[in-house]
Design goal:
CATH topology: Aminopeptidase
Strand order of the largest sheet: 1-3-2-6-10-8-9-7
Number of helices: 7
Shape: globular
Distance between the termini: 37 Å
Strand content: 15-25%
Largest sheet: 8 strands, mixed
Number of strands: 10
Length: 218
């Protein structure tokens, strides 16, 4: 899997865009990178990406079990030897990738997503420890956090927030990997096409959690 990396390596915060069909999120991250953050852009225009001779959802690679499960699901005709090889390759490179993207110290990794095809906040209820729901009529727009303090800070604001409960079985997504490694991570979900809304919520997130690039601009 290939990612284009833009912005300074010294950035305390990092943004990541992993689904090539979520184009509103890509534009939002590109705008943020222009203000000084480091950004990772998946090199794809589709939801699934090439992984060797196979394809996989790049947000389902963060546990070995889920890698194999999703490879089998997405490539039902693939022989076991191809599945074994690709699973091992992802397993080998995953920790390197995580060390590269996860922030140090007080930095925050922000994943920018757009939702469609029925996905909304209710899908996160089974794995939520707490939910702040000031906008129940906007179930597609929400933050997902993995650290208690970030949840408490964001839940003082006007947007929906989910605090992901620790210790549950992982679905292989980046949020679970970040939580297990003790990193600060926020997923920003907004309806596809709502570019103004996504930038508005990202700006609030940056202000609330202290993105240093905002300070550098003033």
């Amino acid at each position: 899997m290939r990612f284009q990396v833009r912005g300074p390596a010294t950035s305390a915060w990092t943004g990541i865009w992993v689904h090539g069909d979520e184009i509103t999120a890509r534009e939002c991250l590109a705008r943020w990178v222009a203000e000084g953050v480091r950004g990772y852009f998946v090199d794809s225009t589709t939801r699934k990406v090439n992984a060797g001779d196979l394809v996989i959802n790049p947000n389902r690679i963060f546990t070995r079990e889920e890698v194999r499960h999703h490879l089998e699901t997405a490539n039902p005709a693939a022989p076991d030897q191809h599945l074994d090889h690709t699973t091992a390759a992802i397993e080998r490179d995953r920790e390197i990738f995580l060390r590269d993207i996860l922030p140090d110290g007080d930095g925050v990794l922000v994943a920018l997503h757009n939702n469609f095809a029925g996905y909304a906040l209710a899908a996160e209820w089974p794995s939520a420890r707490k939910i702040h729901l000031p906008e129940p009529d906007r179930p597609r727009d929400f933050f997902l956090t993995v650290q208690e303090q970030d949840y408490r800070t964001l839940s003082r604001g006007p947007y929906n927030v989910v605090w992901q409960q620790a210790g549950l079985p992982s679905d292989g997504s980046l949020s679970w990997a970040a939580q297990q490694m003790g990193a600060r991570y926020v997923n920003l979900e907004v309806d596809l096409g709502a570019e103004t809304r996504q930038w508005e919520m990202l700006t609030y997130l940056r202000q609330a959690l202290g993105d240093p690039t905002l300070t550098q601009q003033t």
